[in-house]
Amino acid sequence: MRVIVAKNAAEVGKRAAGIIAATVNREPSCVLGLATGGTPLDAYRELIRRHKEEGLDFSRVTTFNLDEYVGLPPTHPQSYRYFMQTNLFDHLNIVPANTHVPDGRSLNFETHCRQYEHRIADAGGIDLQLLGVGSDGHIAFNEPGSSLGSRTRLKTLTRETVEANARFFGSIDKVPRLAITMGVGTILETKRCLLLAVGEHKAAAVQATVEGPVSAQVTASALQLHQEVIVILDEAAARRLERRAYYDDVEQAQTLLEEGRFQELGIGNQS
Ligand code: GLP
């Protein structure tokens, strides 16, 4: 895992948007995996800015979202489809038919989840998957105890997640109890992952994700098995990392490599 610590939340968003934009520029018909929640909002704002001011082109991009509440229509202000429309898609030149979010109205769960997996495969797989992390270490809605090989499926939300989300619904009784979510196994098959975390309340989950044992109790820790993960944190979310100094050394070496400052890396000055 490559761990980058940025100054603050806005910088986390900018770094993340920079990586997403580079992917889109390099491969205009790329497939992006997208996430909801407060964490990616700064990155989405920056992508919108780059589209409007710099012409970043989404016309050939395909997207798949991680998850959706069961029981909410796409027009419900708390549905993840609505979130994606208002916070990103409506402001880009993306083709609506190329944006995929699980359908919260579908009661034919098994078929719908199987089809979602097939659509991802038919699109050629996800090139870059954006992820947030729950304060208990979950990714998407893969709550603690989720199989690390799981696929897109129906998931019962934990009481903690329901309580954490009650603030958006006005009352806890209105929070859906079920969600459709990509599985941990689905996420592990993506080509590259970009996990973002901001704030002190994520520090324990981040430490467990990056440095703890791989465990179904912290589903984000399964990313340790993924081929390429970039973790971008603000200072508060990075606070509990035990090997922080090493992550900073890696970033410094990476910068020197990119700038061709080989001597400072001890390359070429051996007799
Ligand atoms: C929900 C979402 C996750 C998200 C998490 C954290 O559980 N299903 O995808 O990462 O919340 O949300 P936030 O970014 O608001 O902290």
How would you summarize this macromolecular structure in one to three sentences?
This protein is an alpha/beta fold. 36% of the residues lie in helices and 15% in strands.
- State the helical fraction: 25-40%
- Might you state the CATH topology name? Rossmann fold
Low-confidence stretches: none
Estimated share of beta-strand residues: 15-25%
Number of strands: 10
The strand order across the widest sheet is 1-10-9-6-2-3-5
- Helix and strand succession? EHEHEEHEHEEHEHEHEHH
Number of domains: 1
CATH architecture: 3-Layer(aba) Sandwich
Question: Strand pairing plus helix content: what structural class?
Answer: alpha/beta
Mean pLDDT: 96
Rounded to an integer, what's the Rg over CA atoms? Answer: 19 Å
Q: Number of helix segments?
A: 9
CATH class: Alpha Beta
Ions, cofactors, ligands: which are bound?
A: 2-amino-2-deoxy-6-O-phosphono-alpha-D-glucopyranose
Tell me the distance between the termini. 34 Å
- Overall shape: it is globular
Largest sheet data = 7 strands, parallel
